[in-house]
Amino acid sequence: MSVLAELLKKAPQSVKDKYKIKIREKAIERVKTNLVKHNKTIDDYSDDEMEALIQKEEGGLNEDVKKGILTTLLVAAGIEIVAGG
Fold first, then answer.
1. In the chain, how many domains are there?
2. Is 54 part of a structural domain of the chain?
3. Structure letter (DSSP) for residue 44
4. What is the span of the domain harbouring residue 68?
5. CB–CB of 31/53 below 8 Å?
6. HSE-up of residue 70 (Cα within 13 Å, Cβ side)
7. Long-range contacts of range 72-81, CB-CB < 8 Å, 24 or more positions apart?
8. What's the pTM?
9. pLDDT digits (tens, 9 = 90+) for 9-63
10. Is position 80 within any domain?
11. Residue 12 backbone zone (phi > 0: left; psi -120 to 50: alpha; other: beta)
12. Looking at the domain assignment, is residue 10 inside a domain?
């Protein structure tokens, strides 16, 4: 199981809900930005297509979070090693 999944599994439901909402909001922002870049509008896509675009962005954001967590853990471990821990 991934680090992110483990953390979310242990987190209280309110934290899980807030995380999912924030990821969804950020994904929607990214989709809107991509639409503008490609001179498209929401009306150019069906509801299913928009949902697929948002889910793809959510997946990318989750990967970014995983990389951030891993980087933080590696940096913390590196500091511990350098400090003589």
1. 1
2. yes
3. G
4. 3-74
5. yes
6. 10
7. 73/3
8. 0.74
9. 888 888 889 989 999 999 999 999 999 999 999 999 999 999 999 999 999 998 8
10. no
11. beta
12. yes
